[in-house]
Design brief:
Number of strands: 19
Oligomer: single chain
Number of domains: 1
Largest sheet: 8 strands, mixed
Number of helices: 9
Distance between the termini: 67 Å
Strand content: 25-35%
Low-confidence stretches: none
Radius of gyration: 22 Å
Helix content: 10-25%
Length: 371
Amino acid sequence: MRVGFDTETVVVGGGIAGFFALDRLRTAGHQVHLIGCPRPGMDQTQWSQGILHSGWKYHRGDPRPFPDLAETWQKMFEGNAEPELPREAIRTSNLLVWGDVDAGPALGPKVVDPPNCLGEHQVHHLQETIIDPGVVLNHLRQKHQPCCHHGLVKVARMAGGFEILTGTERILTKHLVLAAGAGNEALGMMLGRPPGFMQRRPLRMYLIRGTLPELYGHAMRSKDVALTVHTIPGNHKECTWVIGGALAEDAPELHADEAEHRLRNALMAFLPGGLPTGCWWSSYRIDRAERATTDGQRPDDVCVEMVDGVHYVWPTKLVLAPRAANTLLGMLPQPSHQTGQTHRSVWESLPKLGAAQDPVQDAELKWRPLT
């Protein structure tokens, strides 16, 4: 007969929010396991473009709370803060800003020799870091490998805690943390929470593949970020640009022909120097999942809330994931280590969480020639 809980805490969600929560809680002495989907971080985390925003893009007048968090990430990559992260996750620490640019103290000097594709645009440096989120996810997965599992879950309440059903296994936990992005909505409703507590802000990310130069930065139209571009290196001098910004936010439900027309117009305006021949393009629709706001806009900060004993976590932006994990840690009681009789066979029978894959390779993308 089973007595007690199988673990003190279960985190559901295999993206940046779930892994930072797992790391913070385990480092603080909590007994915790993570259950994620078979493709870690494939939704918001992998398509976040990996920018550790300093706040310039969103709050050029008052960039808080982002700068402190960007510095925290830097310390993690330098080995001066937990968790220590591998420096090979860093793709660049120097973005470019071009287009309608007003030089200011937040921007660095003008770029003397910008990429040819930017044409005659005025270009400035911006000190922000772009990372490969998959490298960070895989590092944290390996660090906590015995506690990382995958499976689709159903959740229910039980006396003193929660019951999680995944596959043929029944897991009992005292605390439940939902850090599953868009999945938080369905899981919360399983536990009796009424709909409407989460919002989805859809994006259509654009991709261009070819023998392209490495490009990381923001193209400005007036005071808005029209395009945000980052590069995923490939093989044989080929790479992929992933393009977000206002282009991705406007009209995400477009037909492919309309989407191509919008992409071409944006390229002519912001990359007038032209692209190499033989490029291909694709697009990918993704939902940003966040706590609901009254105006439907992006929340200003992380959201970590406890409702009816369940902890819901949305970091809002990649750079804010450590803040979300620290907030969660402060809301949970001190670890008790009194979970009763543990059932290691429950965890041993669950599949281990696999490695995060390159989103361009992992997604079901349809490529068309950019003629």
